[in-house]
Design brief:
- The protein is mostly helical.
- The chain has a single domain (21-131), classed as de novo design (two linked rop proteins).
- The chain has helices spanning 21-38, 42-45, 48-66, 71-97, 103-131.
- The chain is elongated.
Length: 136
């Protein structure tokens, strides 16, 4: 076999664009959720826990995707992500009501989800303002 040649490829590879801060917040909150999810009883871990986990991952994927979209589809996708945050809050509340998440952990999870929702709403609002002329 021949020897592999590694050329200086710095000119061909570009670093990814700066991702929105909300993605870092979503990742932190997902990590927080994973720790809570591990403590669910087995039955609930694979039922309600899996549902919450799926929604979290869907939100992360959609937000990451939104970062690369043009303005119009980005605004539409952000609206959908904000709706998914509301669904995530609902299922998190359901887990708390069924004593799967302790009170203090639920309060912290809710606080984090509210913050993410505000960040996404601010991102969407900023894009709408950018798109709409100031004197209309």
């Amino acid at each position: 076999m021949g020897q592999l040649n590694f050329h200086n490829t710095s000119s061909t590879f570009k670093s990814p664009p700066q991702l929105p801060t909300v993605i870092a917040k979503e990742k932190e909150t997902y990590h927080y959720w994973l720790v809570l999810h591990r403590d669910f009883p087995k039955t609930e871990r694979y039922g309600l826990g899996r549902k919450i986990d799926f929604i979290f991952l869907e939100i992360l994927e959609s937000t990451f995707t939104a970062a690369y979209l043009p303005i119009d589809p980005k605004i539409i996708l952000l609206g959908k992500i904000i709706s998914r945050i509301d669904v995530l809050k609902f299922f998190s509340q359901l887990a708390w009501e069924n004593k799967l998440i302790p009170d203090e952990k639920y309060i912290e999870l809710s606080r984090r989800l509210e913050e993410i929702g505000r960040m996404l709403g601010g991102w969407k609002k900023g894009l709408l303002q950018k798109k709409t002329p100031a004197n209309s």
